[in-house]
């Protein structure tokens, strides 16, 4: 489906057209899975995040106001869902250890403690504690590969602010990332 067609379909869905919403969800499902898969290495984790993101799209489509492309809005929803899933998995893994249950190397735990993208997610959590305004622009640019102008429209901030936030976020994240040789 062409971007303009998807934007028009999403606008109808945002206005309450239920068949349009169902069509939007079917159309974007593969894209949402790819977005979540870029951030979460373990397929089941990415699938959990994708399902959460699709649920958010279905329940919050009315928030899509057409200031940006629907796919730009979708990237933000899916990226935030992947980060939320990561936090949830991390919390569940910590609860297992806290409850002193035997910790076996199962996929739920392993996905939280292994993998190159997970150190980025952890760094984003650290940076987001003190500077939450830096995280989303960085994720949209460096993980989801959106253009600066798309990010500015999506976040409703000037282009210079987007570039500045991304630069600051990169500086904050860089020392937190694990370097492997």
From TrEMBL:
The lineage of its organism: Bacteria, Bacillati, Actinomycetota, Actinomycetes, Propionibacteriales. It holds the Pfam family Sigma70_r4_2. Belongs to the sigma-70 factor family. ECF subfamily. This is RNA polymerase sigma factor. The keyword Transcription regulation applies. GO terms for biological process: DNA-templated transcription initiation. Residues 27-92 form the RNA polymerase sigma-70 region domain. Keywords: DNA-binding, Sigma factor, Transcription, Transcription regulation. InterPro entries: RNA_pol_sigma-70-like, RNA_pol_sigma-70_dom, RNA_pol_sigma70_r2, RNA_pol_sigma70_r4_t2, RNA_pol_sigma_r2, RNA_pol_sigma_r3/r4-like, WH-like_DNA-bd_sf. Residues 136-172 form the RNA polymerase sigma factor 70 region 4 type domain. GO terms for molecular function: DNA binding; sigma factor activity. SUPFAM superfamilies: Sigma2 domain of RNA polymerase sigma factors, Sigma3 and sigma4 domains of RNA polymerase sigma factors. The keyword Transcription regulation applies.
């Amino acid at each position: 489906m062409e971007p303009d067609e998807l934007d028009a379909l999403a606008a109808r869905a945002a206005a309450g057209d239920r068949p349009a919403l169902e069509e939007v969800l079917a159309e974007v499902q593969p894209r949402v899975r790819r977005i979540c898969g870029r951030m979460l290495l373990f397929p089941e984790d990415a699938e959990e995040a994708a399902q959460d993101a699709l649920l958010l799209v279905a329940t919050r489509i009315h928030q899509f106001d057409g200031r940006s492309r629907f796919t730009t809005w979708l990237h933000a929803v899916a990226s935030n869902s992947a980060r939320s899933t990561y936090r949830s998995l991390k919390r569940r893994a910590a609860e297992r250890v806290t409850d002193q249950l035997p910790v076996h190397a199962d996929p739920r735990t392993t996905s939280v403690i292994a993998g190159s993208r997970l150190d980025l997610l952890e760094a984003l959590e650290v940076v987001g504690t003190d500077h939450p305004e830096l995280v989303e622009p960085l994720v949209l640019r460096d993980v989801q590969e959106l253009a600066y102008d798309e990010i500015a429209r999506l976040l409703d901030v000037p282009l210079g602010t987007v570039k500045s936030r991304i630069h600051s976020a990169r500086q904050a994240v860089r020392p937190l990332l694990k370097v492997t040789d």
